[in-house]
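Technical annex, item 7. During the second reporting period the consortium partners agreed on a shared format for inverse folding records so that results from different sites could be compared directly. Each record opens with the tokenized structure and is followed by the designed sequence. A conforming record, contributed by the partner at site C, is shown below for reference.
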């Protein structure tokens, strides 16, 4: 057991856990941050998608020892603050397009969408269908068409 410190949703946090505990369990079970969902635990379903220094990652596949004291972890709970609003523009678009069905995959879908828009812009272009094809978040309810429309709308307001 050792102490691990990192920045979570803008605040520095410290946890006493074994080095090899994966971050998803630290977030959910130790820190009570349950936006990142547990689906597979093996980096396949993407239900836990969050941001690691602004880029999409899956905390079920990262050991807490691999997160440094200055690394910034952002979950869906911290996303609105990154836009300085009550809701991030991507969340607003999700509501406008009534995307969610059961909702389980949706925090991960939104976090993946925001990261993909940023990635496309860093590469010098706006998000397009080929970028959307690269998002691998599984939705058991099959809301994929609404997700794609909402991402385009949300991107326009980011
Ligand atoms: S729970 Fe993390 S990818 Fe499935
Ligand atoms: S809305 Fe049900 S799994 Fe995606």
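Designed sequence (site C submission):
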């Amino acid at each position: 057991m050792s102490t691990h410190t990192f920045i979570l949703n803008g605040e520095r946090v410290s946890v006493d856990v074994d080095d090899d505990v994966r971050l998803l369990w630290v977030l959910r079970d130790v820190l009570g941050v349950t936006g990142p969902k547990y689906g597979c635990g093996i980096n396949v379903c993407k239900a836990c998608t969050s941001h690691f220094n602004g880029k999409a990652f899956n905390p079920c596949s990262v050991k807490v020892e691999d997160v440094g004291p200055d690394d910034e972890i952002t979950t869906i709970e911290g996303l609105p603050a990154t836009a300085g609003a009550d809701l991030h523009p991507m969340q607003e678009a999700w509501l406008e397009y009534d995307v969610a069905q059961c909702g389980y995959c949706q925090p991960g879908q939104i976090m993946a969408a925001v990261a993909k828009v940023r990635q496309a812009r860093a590469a010098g272009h706006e998000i397009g269908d080929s970028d959307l094809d690269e998002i691998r978040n599984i939705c058991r309810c099959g809301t994929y068409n609404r997700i794609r429309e909402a991402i385009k709308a949300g991107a326009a307001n980011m």
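The chain has six helices and five strands. The domain at 2-76 is CATH 3.10.20.30 (Ubiquitin-like (UB roll)). All partners now use this format for quarterly exchanges.
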